[in-house]
Amino acid sequence: MPRTDIIATMQADIERVLISRRQIAARVGELADQISGRYAQYPEGLVIVSVLAGAMVFLADLIRHLPLRMRIALVGFSSYPGPATEAGDLTCVCPLDIDVERRHVLVVDDILDTGRTLRRVVSDLRRMKPASVRTCVLLRKPGKTEGDFEPDFVGFDIEDVFVVGYGLDYDDQYRNWPDLVVLKPELYGASPAACDRAS
Ligand code: IMP
Ligand code: MG
């Protein structure tokens, strides 16, 4: 199938654009300024711990705007088995492989939904005795987060809809779409919870 036809079929899956690539780029620049301001006081730099795979596009853009010394490490959890939009149990599928003792750590993730993932990452990290742990998320769904987890840096507060694109997936697809979009409800056929939310 020609390239333009593939793009057209993906485009046809999209119900609406929630946040455009231009808006994302502008906000990532602002977030980077805030983060640089906070970490400029540490000449030794920081360790960025990012969560696979949803944060990869955000991470790639963000780090190129940060004029700081840094090491980057990745962790991975599996919580959305197959075509699901409701999280199941958190299983660590890629453990942290870096020493963070006495280092300043910034955890970067795509979205704060229930907060289970970030809470788990932060509590695992704290046991490794870092100098500090802060968190940065591109998106937050206010009202969904369990407990009182407050990220240090937030890109956008969004409504309670399932979003894909810019790294976020549904059934491991759509991560490469450059905007943050909402898919047509009929695509979530295998997931009744998502149909409820989308209708
Ligand atoms: P939480 O643990 O419930 O805060 O969410 C953890 C992970 O679920 C996020 O890092 C995302 O990878 C995924 N997630 C949550 N909401 C969405 C969404 O609207 N679209 C795509 N992935 C999501
Ligand atoms: Mg994630």
Defining traits:
6-stranded mixed β-sheet, globular, 9 strands, binds magnesium ion, alpha/beta, single chain
Kindly describe this structure.
- By secondary structure, this protein is of the alpha/beta class.
- The protein has a single domain (21-161), classed as Rossmann fold.
- 28% of the residues lie in helices and 28% in strands.
- The strands form two sheets. Strands 4-3-2-5-6-7 form a six-stranded mixed beta sheet.
- Helix 3 links the parallel strand 2 and strand 3 (70-78).
- The two termini are 32 Å apart.
- Bound molecules: inosinic acid (IMP) and magnesium ion.
- Magnesium ion is lined by residues 51, 54-55, 109-110, 117.
- Residues 51, 54, 87, 109-117, 162-164, 168 line the site of inosinic acid.
Shape: globular
| Biggest beta sheet summary | 6 strands, mixed
How much helical structure, as a percent, in the residues? 25-40%
Please identify, by name, the CATH architecture: 3-Layer(aba) Sandwich
Compact description:
α4 links the parallel β5 and β6. The chain starts with a helix and ends with a helix. The chain has 199 residues and is α/β, with parallel strands linked by helices.
What's the helix and strand layout?
Layout: H1 3-13, E1 14-19, H2 21-39, E2 46-52, H3 56-63, E3 70-78, E4 91-94, E5 104-112, H4 116-126, E6 132-140, E7 153-157, E8 163-164, E9 180-183, H5 192-198
Parallel strand pairs: 2-3, 2-5, 5-6, 6-7
Antiparallel strand pairs: 1-9, 3-4, 8-9
This protein binds inosinic acid (IMP) and magnesium ion.
